[in-house]
Amino acid sequence: MLSRWFGNQFIQNIWQYAANSNNLFLSDINSVLISHNTNLKNALKKYAVWRYYTGSRDDGNHFPKGHLYNSSKILREYITGIGSGSSFPDDLWNRGGTSYITFKNADGVLDINFNGQDTREFSVIALNRRAYFGDTENTLILNSQNDGTIQNLSCIGDDEVVLIPIVTDWQSQLNINSYSYSSNYGQGISTSFWTEKESNNLNGTLTLQRSASTNSGVSKNLANQLDYNVVVNQERFLNVGGKTVKHNRWNQLRDKNFLNQQFRAGNDNNRQSAKYENMEYSRIQSRLEGQLIQDKGTFEFNDPWYVKSDGTQPGNYWIIASGVYEPNGKEGATEKGVFLNQEIAPNKPYYSVKADYLQTFNLSQTGRTHKFYFQGWSASPQGSAEFQNANALETPVVFKQANATVQAKYY
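^ that's the sequence the OP posted. Answer follows.
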């Protein structure tokens, strides 16, 4: 671990220093660490955390071959996040003695209390393991009696907390180092989650931190100023006021158009709403000399809200079609339509169309090969769609009314 922390030369530095020292070897290690602006106590803390990431918990960021080591022992696991206990019967031994106590599925925020044996020297880390985000190491501040509390730990969904007490006294050999601990629900930031069409609750469901399901309108306590990931589970709802509605954005943020979004919990951000809008039927056609010929005339349509069959949303997704395409917003969906009046602006989603300048076809009507040249885009009825540049091969398009037909014109 030390060589990965400071480089391979560091181990050689220790041996060179020890060769000219009359002190204990641990004291020599501490002296070399001090020359690198740290000390042996900090190294013992880091070593304790690294030992957690062994075996099945190896994350590739700690021991180079951590997956080959045995997984470090978990002293206790609390599957509802709430519990209390002590080090007995595994009281810590001297010089780096460590335990691992896991708290899961609290469906909110945890506070953890620690009480270490007096006259001993402890450090305590609360490792917050996070889905979607990097794990964080939180150090408990202990008083002179080795008592301390840490708050605001996320323990919802796949987030969990690992309490790691460590004996950091390397100068003495006190073989029994005991402690006790307890966990309680923390206050956190009460954050509500919604699926809404305008202000109407659609009674959908959302998933927080990979596995915590919540109904629309329900609040969860989240750790203040921590980032979270939420996914709305319904891409669309049928027959809402006689219309099919599809997920359009989060809150009023037009650039947050995916089914999942990440946000930072806080008092000013304590309402997360998946917003839905009506889908209105439309179609795109390729017109060859004013005629619609089945499966002739290739064009592309970019739908930034499109959902593929595996649930992913590419964002910049061009759908290739010939003759006619009726947007449906999701691979395999039977309901068809687009959003109306989407703003064309940088960093915001909007529809686009694209066509080639020249297309060549063999037409059965004439038995000959014909060349067709792009002449621009149009909408029927007139004004039912607007183009940023109707003469460009590729252009953003805004659908203005239901039943609009966008046409690529070729002659």
